[in-house]
Amino acid sequence: MNATRPLGYWLKLVxxxxxxxxxxxLEEHGVTRRQWQVLNLLEQQPATEAELIAGxxxxxxxxxxxxxxxxxxxxxxxxxxxxxxxxxxxxTDRGHTSLMKLSELVERIRTQSGAxxxxxxxxxxxxxLEKIARNLGWDPDTSKD
Length: 145
Hints:
Blueprint: H1 7-27, H2 33-44, H3 49-56, H4 70-79, E1 82-85, E2 88-91, H5 93-113, H6 119-135
């Protein structure tokens, strides 16, 4: 039966399982997956809310996600992990330290998800998914990832 299941089935299943793993791990530390992603973007450089929304847009396509990151940003500001000044958000030292700890946990999930794949198998899966995305209209030159 498994061999007859289409690509979409496996993509949705794996995405759901990844979300569950991330949610369980990150929630133990008082942060959502979207907040962790915001911290990652702000680790690269300060950003406006609009820039953060654009950077996270693939993740907000889900009907169970809010249309904006405002709630996530407010919680991160309240926790002292980010600051907001002159229309831009920036990560604080406390946020950076927390992100480093959370990143270690996320890396464990990533390692677990590919545990039975050798490097070439993992690379082949990623390359195939990128080709599929391009075939369906994704353009890396216009993408905000």
